[in-house]
Amino acid sequence: MPLRCPQLSPAVKMHFFARILLAGLAAAVQAQWQHVSDAEFHSLVDSNDLLLAAFVAPWTGPCKSLASEWAATKSQLTYPAVSIDCTANQTLCSAHNVHSYPAIRLFRGPHEWVRYRGPRKASAIVPFVRRASLPVVSEVNIKNITALTGIDRVTFVAYLKEDDHSMRSRFTKVAETFRDQFVFGISNDKRLAEKENIAFPSIIAYRTDVGDQEVLQGTVTRSVIGKFILEAGKPLIDELTRRNEIDYMSSHKLLAYIFVADDADRTLFRRKLHPVAKQYKDYVNFVTIDGDEYGHMAASLGLHRGHYPSFTVYSAWKDQVFPYPAVKRIEADNIEAFLLEILHGERAPWSPSGTVQGQHDEL
Questions:
Q1: Cis status, amide bond into 62, omega within 30 of 0
Q2: How many structural domains does the chain have?
Q3: Per-residue pLDDT, 169
Q4: pLDDT per position as a tens digit, 78-102
Q5: How far apart, in Å, are the Cα atoms of 30 and each of 13, 17, 54, 61, 172?
Q6: Burial letters for 253-274: b for 16+ Cβ neighbours within 10 Å, e otherwise?
Q7: Is residue 7's pLDDT more than 70?
Q8: Are residues 154 and 218 part of one domain?
Q9: Is residue 339 a contact partner of residue 276, using CB atoms and an 8 Å limit?
Q10: Which of 20, 116, 185, 207 would be 212's cystine partner, CB 3.0–4.6 Å?
């Protein structure tokens, strides 16, 4: 007599297939990670000048999101990038002060490591490692300047005479403090200085990503150099994140949101709108915002969720919203004219009903 399978209720069937689906998704995520053992990790740390490590709990949301970015990171680096499953190797993770996931560490041998605190994107992690592979300060000349400034979005080069020991020492000390964030170089190449139309002594911030420069001229103190590094190194159009959201919302400047669908859009609009952000930086903070992660905010800012790229301006202290017309292209000239209307009180704010409120005082 043939065996018969028991009849399952629809609810049981649904639960059964849901478990199969979840197991399949978990296996797919796990397949993207290629974890190393404790012994493999220590062997790689001992045998490499630099080692990048991700300490993860593979089933957590942030670690799932990192998996594909980590694979992209590994493909672009000449140094090893490994991952450790902290659910299976708690001892190793605890030894490196890992208490939340993912945690990324860059090792310079077995006894020295630094935390990575930037975006969990290959586009940010790869330059971080490449910066670490350089000397604190690289010697720069007319032949290698392009290669050095192409490593990251901002590069600081001090143009100093060879016998200007005091400025060299000050610049190097500041570079040691910020080496994990930026690329630094020193040049005494007269031909390069002439090409850049720079007088000794000067420090240039090459903002390669937006095609712009900032210059600090003259003999200055370490504190002045440090302040210049921080100000010139901060992107005028930053990415809105959970970490900086409160700072932007508490500012007394207008907040201009650029909703984007992906990193390509983010790069495009950071470069395209940089001149406007620079011109009006005393009055307006510009940020790009991930449409997927922050899409729930679109409606309250007068935008349609999923219609990206899109642009809107928010006044936190007056709780007023100024959505940019969806039918107009997001171009520098158009955005500047739009901002001037807001700043001069010539554009009425939007209301949730879809109508505009009455005219208001100059902001």
A1: no
A2: 3
A3: 97
A4: 999 999 999 999 999 999 889 899 9
A5: 26, 20, 14, 12, 43
A6: bbbbbbbbeebebbbbbbebbb
A7: no
A8: yes
A9: yes
A10: 207
* Among 59, 52, 54, CA closest to 87: 59
The answer on 226 and 201 residing in a single domain is yes
Query: Kind and range of the H or E element at 76?
Result: helix 61-76
**Residue that is written with structure tokens 């879809």 in the block:** 354
The string of pLDDT tens digits covering residues 258-312 is 999 998 999 999 999 999 999 999 999 999 999 988 889 999 999 999 999 999 9
> Predicted confidence band at 13 (pLDDT cuts at 50, 70, 90)?
very low
pLDDT of residue 266: 93
Note whether 200 and 281 are same-domain residues: no
Whole-number Å distance between alpha carbons of 235 and 242: 17
Q: Per the domain annotation, does 358 fall within a domain?
A: no
Contact by Cβ (8 Å): 38, 91: yes
* Tokens found for residue 298: 């679109």
**Residue 181 to residue 136: CA distance in whole angstroms:** 11
Neighbours of 248 (CB within 10 A): 18
Residue at 12 is within a domain = no
Burial 201-238 (b: 16+ CB within 10 A, else e): bbbbbbbbebebebebeeebeeeebeebbeebbebbbb
5 belongs to a structural domain: no
In CATH, what number is assigned to the domain containing residue 329? Answer: 3.40.30.10
Residues 219 and 187 in one domain: yes
Average pLDDT over residues 36-64: 94
pTM metric for this prediction: 0.75
Q: Are residues 328 and 294 in the same domain?
A: yes
Q: Write out the residue range of the structural domain in which residue 278 sits.
A: 237-344
The verdict on 107 and 163 lying in the same domain is no
